[in-house]
Design a protein that fits this description.
CATH architecture of the largest domain: Sandwich
Distance between the termini: 94 Å
Helix content: 40-55%
Number of domains: 4
Structural class: alpha+beta
Number of helices: 15
Largest sheet: 5 strands, antiparallel
CATH superfamily of the largest domain: Jelly Rolls
Low-confidence stretches: 102-108, 439-443
Number of strands: 16
Mean pLDDT: 77
C-alpha cells in the first residue's frame, strides 16, 4: 500500500510542478492532494517497518486486523492534522462525517458486527490461527481470521467461512487446548466383549497392549486406559481412552487403536461379542467340523516343521507340540517381547516381519530381521533366561506361541529331547554370536561345550535329574 501511495504521490508532484509553472489555479488543489498522499505513504511505510521489522525482532506478533486498524487510525489522525495545517476547514467535514457514520452504521450493522468480532477475536486471542475448533456441526482448523469472517479448514478438504459475529455470539469449543498443557485431545474407542470373560481380565489385557509399545499420534502421558461402560444382553461395552496429539488424524489413529485392541484380545483368546439376537445358520456336519479342525491343525504342524529348533524331534513329538500352539497375532508396532523381560514362551512367526533390537550404550540398534519360519524366545522357554533383545512387529504379524508347561509335558515323557534341542540351540547361538561379533565382542566357545552347558540349564530349569 505504501508503494501505491508513493507512486501516485510522485506522479502528482510532476503534475503539480507543471501546473505551477503554467500558473494554473488547479495547482493548490493538486498540491493538497499530493501532500495527503505523501502523508499516507509515510504512515504506511512506518507501519510496515514497525509490524514487519521492529516487533518481530522483539518476538511480538501483531494480528493482521490490529495492524490494519493501527495504520488506518494513524493515517486518519495525521491526515486531519496535515489538512488543518493546509488551511482546510475541518468543522464541516466532522459534522458531515457524524451524519454519514450514523447512516452507514444502521445500514451495515451485520458487517460492522463481523468486523468488530474479528477485532475482538484477535485482541483477546480466544481463537488463534492454527487452533482446531468446533462450531455447531463444523469441526476444523482455523486457517485465517479476516475482517469479516474466519476461515475454517475441515478434514474433508473443505474451507468453511464462518462470520465473526457468529463466533462471538455462539459457543465455540477449542479442541485440545488446555492452560499450560501440550496440545492433545482425548478420544474414546468402544469395543464389546462376550460377558463370559471377567471384566478385570479384559481391562488388564487391553491396557497392557496399549501401554506396551508407543503408537503414532498417541500421547504417552496421560497413559491410555480402559473402562467398562455398561452391560448389555450378552456382552460388556468397554472403552479404550487415549490422548491424540495430532488432531488432524483422528480416524486413522482410532483405527490403529482398534487394531491394537483386536490383536490383544485375539492373543488372550477373548472373543468380540455378537448381539444375542443374531442368528447364524450353517449346515454343519462331522465332515465340516473335521475339515475346519484339520486346516487349523495343519497350520500348527507346518509351524513346528519349519522351525529348525525342533527338527530333531520325531513326527509324533512334533505333532504333540503342534497341538499345544496358541494363535498369537500382533499389530504393526507392537513389541512381541522386550529386552530384559522374563516370559517363558516361544514365538514362531507364520507371516509378517519383526525387527530384533538390542540396547547398546543406551541406544536401540537393529541387529536382525525375523520373517516367516523364524522363531524367538527359545532361551526363555528352555532355560528361563531373560529376553536378550527387543522384538518389534514391522508389519502385522501372525504368530504361534508355545508355553513352558506344554514343552515340559513332552520333556518329561522324552527326557532325551533336552540334549537334542540343546544341540540345535547351541548351533543357533554360535551363529548369532558371530553375526553380532562386532557389536558385542563376545568370546565364542566350542559348540560341544555350549551344548553341554545348555543341556544342564534346560534340565535344571525343568527340574530334571542330571
Amino acid at each position: 500500500m505504501a508503494n501505491f501511495f508513493l507512486a501516485v504521490h510522485l506522479i502528482l508532484v510532476v503534475v503539480g510542478a507543471a501546473l505551477h509553472s503554467a500558473g494554473s489555479n488547479a495547482y493548490s488543489d493538486v498540491h493538497l492532494v499530493t501532500s495527503l498522499l505523501g502523508t499516507l505513504a509515510i504512515v504506511s511505510a512506518a507501519g510496515a517497518v514497525l509490524f514487519h521489522g521492529v516487533l518481530p525482532r522483539l518476538h511480538i506478533t501483531a494480528p493482521q486486523i490490529i495492524q490494519d486498524v493501527s495504520v488506518a487510525g494513524a493515517a486518519l489522525v495525521v491526515l486531519l492534522f496535515v489538512a488543518s495545517r493546509k488551511g482546510l476547514n475541518l468543522s464541516g467535514i466532522v459534522a458531515t462525517s457524524a451524519v454519514l457514520t450514523a447512516v452507514v452504521g444502521l445500514s451495515l450493522q451485520d458487517t460492522l458486527g463481523n468486523i468488530l468480532g474479528g477485532i475482538a477475536l484477535q485482541t483477546d486471542e480466544s481463537i488463534k490461527v492454527g487452533d482446531w475448533i468446533q462450531v455447531g456441526d463444523v469441526t476444523g482448523r482455523v486457517s485465517n481470521i479476516h475482517w469479516r469472517y474466519t476461515a475454517v479448514e475441515t478434514r474433508d478438504w473443505e474451507t468453511v467461512v464462518v462470520p465473526n459475529s457468529v463466533l462471538i455470539k455462539t459457543q465455540v469449543t477449542v479442541l485440545g487446548r488446555r492452560t499450560d498443557q501440550p496440545l492433545q485431545l482425548r478420544r474414546s474407542v468402544d469395543f464389546n466383549v462376550d460377558f463370559r470373560f471377567p471384566p478385570p481380565e479384559v481391562i488388564r489385557v487391553v491396557t497392557e497392549a496399549l501401554h506396551a509399545a508407543p503408537m503414532p499420534n498417541v500421547a504417552r502421558l496421560p497413559l491410555p486406559d480402559v473402562v467398562l461402560r455398561e452391560f448389555r444382553e450378552s456382552w460388556g461395552r468397554y472403552t479404550a481412552r487415549y490422548y491424540l496429539t495430532d488432531i488432524a488424524v483422528d480416524d486413522p489413529t482410532d483405527s490403529r487403536v482398534r487394531e491394537r485392541v483386536y490383536f490383544a484380545l485375539s492373543r488372550a483368546g477373548m472373543n468380540l461379542s455378537i448381539p444375542a439376537h443374531a442368528l447364524f445358520l450353517t449346515q454343519d456336519s462331522n465332515e465340516r467340523r473335521a475339515q475346519k479342525r484339520g486346516q487349523f491343525s495343519e497350520r500348527k504342524r507346518h509351524a513346528i516343521e519349519i522351525t529348525g529348533l525342533f527338527a530333531s524331534l520325531s513326527p509324533e513329538d512334533q505333532a504333540d507340540l503342534a497341538e499345544s500352539l496358541v494363535y498369537a497375532p500382533f499389530a504393526k508396532g507392537e513389541a512381541l517381547t522386550r529386552q530384559g523381560s522374563r516370559a517363558h514362551w516361544l514365538y514362531i512367526i507364520e507371516e509378517g516381519e519383526c525387527a530384533v533390537q538390542v540396547e547398546v550404550d543406551g541406544k536401540q540398534r537393529q541387529v536382525a530381521t525375523l520373517r516367516a519360519g523364524d522363531f524367538m524366545g527359545e532361551m526363555s522357554l528352555l532355560t528361563g533366561a531373560e529376553r536378550s533383545a527387543t522384538v518389534e512387529a514391522q508389519t502385522d504379524v501372525q504368530c504361534w506361541r508355545l508355553g513352558r508347561t506344554d514343552f515340559e509335558a513332552l520333556l518329561k515323557r522324552r527326557p532325551e529331547i533336552a540334549e537334542e534341542v540343546a544341540e540345535t540351540l547351541a548351533k543357533r547361538q554360535i551363529e548369532l554370536d558371530r553375526a553380532r561379533h562386532d557389536l558385542t565382542e563376545e568370546h565364542h566357545v566350542d559348540a560341544l561345550e555350549r551344548k553341554r552347558d545348555l543341556t544342564e540349564k534346560i534340565r535344571s530349569f525343568f527340574g530334571m535329574d542330571p
